[in-house]
Design brief:
The protein is of the alpha+beta class and 85 residues long. It is built from two helices and seven strands.
Length: 85
């Protein structure tokens, strides 16, 4: 495999790129906590993040959850919703 092919194929690399709020961020491949993803993407720890599925539907991630990062995942962040009025 050429060096160019290795760069284009994230398989076997320890760091890959994910997208948060339409911006690319490097992160370590593998099982990552939501807290680690927020940190890697400079997201306010008080905010929530959602994983955008292949169908384009966002899935809210609990702060205690984890995601297996392969590279290319897309997320959005926003202020935590809800609360009483």
């Amino acid at each position: 495999m050429s060096d160019k092919q290795k760069q284009d194929d994230p398989h076997g690399q320890s760091n890959v790129t994910i997208e948060m709020d339409s911006k690319s961020h490097p992160i370590h491949r593998g099982h990552q906590s939501v807290t680690a993803i927020k940190s890697a993407c400079d997201v306010n720890p008080a905010w929530v993040i959602e994983l955008i599925g292949e169908d384009g539907v966002p899935k809210l991630l609990d702060d205690g959850a984890a995601v297996t990062i392969k590279g290319g995942e897309r997320f959005i962040s926003h202020v935590r919703g809800g609360g009483s009025s």
